[in-house]
Amino acid sequence: MIGDLGARDATALAGLVAKGDVSATELLDAALEAVAARNPAINAVVLMQEDVARRTISDGLPRGPFRGVPFLIKDLGCEARDFPSHNGSRLFANTRYAHDSAIYQRMRATGVVTFGRTTSPEGGIGAATEAAVYGGATRNPWSLDHTPGGSSGGSGAAVAAGIVAMAHGSDGGGSVRIPASSCGLFGFKPTRARLPDGPYAGEGWAGMAIDGFLTRSVRDTAMMLDACAGADLGAPYYAPPLQHGHAQAIARPPRRLRVAICDTTLTGAPIDEHVAEVVRHTGRLLERLGHHVEPGYPASADVQMMMRAWTDIVAVGTALSIQAGLKGRKLTGDLVEGIGRGAADHAAYLSPLRYLEAVGEIHSFGRQMADFFHEGPDILLSATLAEPPAKVGRFSHATTDYVAYRTGPEGIFSYSPFCAIFNASGQPAASLPMGMVEGLPVGVHLAAAFGKDEELIALCAEIEGAEPWAGRRAPLAA
Fold first, then answer.
1. Choosing from 175, 217, 321, 382, which is the catalytic residue?
2. Which ranges constitute the DSSP H helices of 43-163?
3. Closest C-alpha to 385, from 347, 414, 352, 343
4. Within a domain: 10
5. CB atoms < 10 A from the CB of 233, how many?
């Protein structure tokens, strides 16, 4: 049962439940068997609540699009009364919540059967998932020596391992798209404020962070986005309204689009040649589909300014979170890992005026990117990562040099120079599993103008139809 059901996406599993071919309990049992068989190798699924999941089924599941499908939520945010959280940190271990977050309420209404959480790096500020609170690194089902990415690395690993067909994630600097690229999955970051943040937060990282999903298919993401989209009560701002919704958008191909292809970084620096060839291959595919493809990237956008601003905003957010968790205790290494302590130190060093200055800089950067898309292409095609997935340990949180960890020559922004740009600008962006390099998945990155989520996801679905990736599965899931 594990192997058979593990090859289907969430929509197909829900269809089996609807037809009576399999029950929600049988699907949950299969997922739990997969956890027992595969999770010891990858360390991705934590804080399991089997009793909650079985009670959810016995109480009667909502008749939503994913009724009966096993599901996991990221152990960072996504507050839920029935699901205690470590939030990736020993400082917040076993946190309980009095209320469900809006995003969890909407996911639950789809009929999913949530039975646990997935690992995340402390603070969500890494491109690898290796938090001390979980007792070891989370590993990639394609190669246990490599990272599944971060910060939604546990979700990416759980889906790639065939434990679940779909899992919740979140993305403040690529944290859905990096695991999607590393694990051979589809990951979509919506336009800023498309999904709710409340009631526990008004916005994440000055609006740069947003929830999302790791899936095997575009249609799973589309339907879950439609189920969750829309501001919650008291939201500070709204995304532009959708015309028809993501699911309707993927029902037909988009108009023929102007695509700028970039096989370097967005500042013109070279990337791994094998990864660059996957980008060019995707460009040739788009040309065969009738889209207009030509080289281009936003040369006038101040990427270095954006990276500095992102680094400072996240440091302040991290310091504020740590301060709240300490409750008067001293900040020590047994409570917070090196990167978190380094971020707090960096935030303390900043001018009291710097936070608002940095927010202004990312808003300025968003306008620069808007100008590029207004005057030029509809879509920007690049790699998701500048190289194949990194080895475990390369982005350890042990170091306290937070700035070098992010912006140094061997730092996160060199490894992932594309993703955070679209968190800063607020634009929709996606990672598609379009290639393999030495047995490891490689994603390409597509981004569209602010608010153009439907056009972007329609293009993703067209690419999936032209060059399906569903048959590619990690060795651990086979």
1. 175
2. 50-59, 102-108, 153-160
3. 414
4. yes
5. 8
Q: How far apart are CA 17 and CA 61, in angstroms?
A: 11
Among the options 143, 151, 321, 382, which is catalytic?
A: 151
For the four alpha carbons of 46, 51, 56 and 57, in that order, the dihedral sign comes to positive
The three-class DSSP label of residue 213 is strand
pLDDT of 2 strictly over 70: no
Q: Which of 155, 122, 123, 121 is nearest to 140 (CA)?
A: 155
Q: Rounded to 5 degrees, what angle do the CA atoms 245, 249, 255 make? A: 135
Kindly tell me if the per-residue pLDDT of 1 is higher than 90. Answer: no
For 118-138, the pLDDT digits (tens) are 999 999 999 999 999 999 999
Residues 6+ apart with CB under 8 A from 64: 109, 110, 111, 112, 227
Instruction: Domain of residue 449: give its range.
Output: 2-254+434-477
pLDDT in tens, 27-77: 999 999 999 999 999 999 999 999 999 999 999 999 999 999 999 999 999
151 tagged catalytic: yes
Distance CA 133, CA 397 (A): 12
Beta strand 379-383 with 429-437 is: unpaired
User: Which pLDDT score, from 0 to 100, does residue 478 have?
Assistant: 80
DSSP 31-76: HHHHHHHHHHHH--EES--HHHHHHHHHH----STTTT-EEEEESS
Q: How many C-beta neighbours within 10 Å does residue 472 have?
A: 14
CATH assignment at residue 100 = 3.90.1300.10
Which residue in 363, 356, 360, 319 sits closest to 339, CA to CA?
319
- Side chain identity, residue 27: L
Q: Is residue 30 part of a domain?
A: yes
On whether the CB atoms of residues 181 and 435 are closer than 8 A, the answer is no
Residue 243, Cβ density class (10 Å: 0-12 exposed, 13-18 middle, ≥19 buried): exposed
Q: Please state the rounded mean pLDDT for residues 296-311.
A: 97
* Residue given tokens 């391992």 in the structure block: 161
Whole-angstrom distance, CA of residue 382 vs CA of residue 14: 34
- Catalytic choice (74, 85, 425, 431): 74
Catalytic annotation on 175? yes
Query: Is there a domain that residue 450 lies in?
Result: yes
Confirm whether 379 is domain-assigned. Answer: no
Which pLDDT does position 6 carry in this prediction? Answer: 77
Sheet containing strand 258-261, edge to edge, reads: 45-46, 113-118, 70-74, 166-171, 210-215, 186-189, 429-437, 440-448, 379-383, 258-261, 292-295
Q: Which residue has the tokens 């090859």?
A: 7
Number of domains into which the chain is organized: 1
CA distance 86 to 181: 25
Q: Give the pLDDT of residue 5.
A: 72
Annotated catalytic residue 327: no
- Residue 239 is classified by DSSP as P
